[in-house]
Amino acid sequence: MDRASRCCVYLWQKNAGSLHVRNALGRCGVRCRGRVHERDRAGERTGDSGGNPYPRPRAVDIAADYALLGKKDNAFEWLDRADRAREGQLMYLRVDDRFESLRSDPRFTALERRLGFPP
C-alpha cells in the first residue's frame, strides 16, 4: 500500500463520521489512483494546470488535511500560505472542525490575530 493510501485509511479510521474527512478522502482517492501529485508536493506545482483535469487544491484545504493527520507544523505552514494568498475560506477558521486539533496551539491564536478575528 502506498503512502497516500495509508493516509486515507488512517483518516477514515480516526474521523469516519466527519463530512470534511469524507471530502479529504475523496481528494486522497484521486491521489491514490495517481491522477494528481501527493498533497506533500502540492506546493511545488505552479498555478498552471498543465492539462490536469483536477483543480489545484486550496492551501487552506491542504492545511486541514495535515491538521486531520496530526501534522501541526505542516498545517501551520499551509495556513500561512493561505493567509499570504488571502484565501477567503480562512474566514471560517474558527468554526471549521477540521482545525480542532490546532486550536490549543499558540500559533493558532497568533494566526487569528493576524486575520483580524475579535478576541
SSE diagram, text form:
Layout: H1 3-15, H2 19-32, H3 59-69, H4 72-84, H5 106-115
Describe this structure in words.
This protein has helices spanning about 5-15, 20-30, 60-70, 70-85, 105-115. The protein has one domain. Mean pLDDT is about 75; it is low at about 30-50. Helices cover about 50% and strands about 0% of the residues. With about 120 residues, it is mainly α. The termini are far apart. It is built from five helices and no strands. The protein is globular. Helix 3 (about 60-70) packs antiparallel against helix 4 and helix 4 packs parallel to helix 5.
Proportion of β residues? under 5%
Give, in order, the helices and strands. HHHHH
How many strand segments?
0
Principal-axis shape equals: globular
Helix content: 40-55%
Mean pLDDT over the residues: 76
Main sheet properties: none
The Cα radius of gyration reads 14 Å
Separation, N- and C-terminal Cα atoms: 45 Å
Q: What tags apply to this protein structure?
A:
119 residues; mainly alpha; 51% helix; 0% strand
Give a concise summary.
By secondary structure, the chain is an all-alpha fold. The chain contains five helices and no strands. Helix 1 (3-15) packs antiparallel against helix 2 (19-32) and helix 3 packs antiparallel against helix 4.
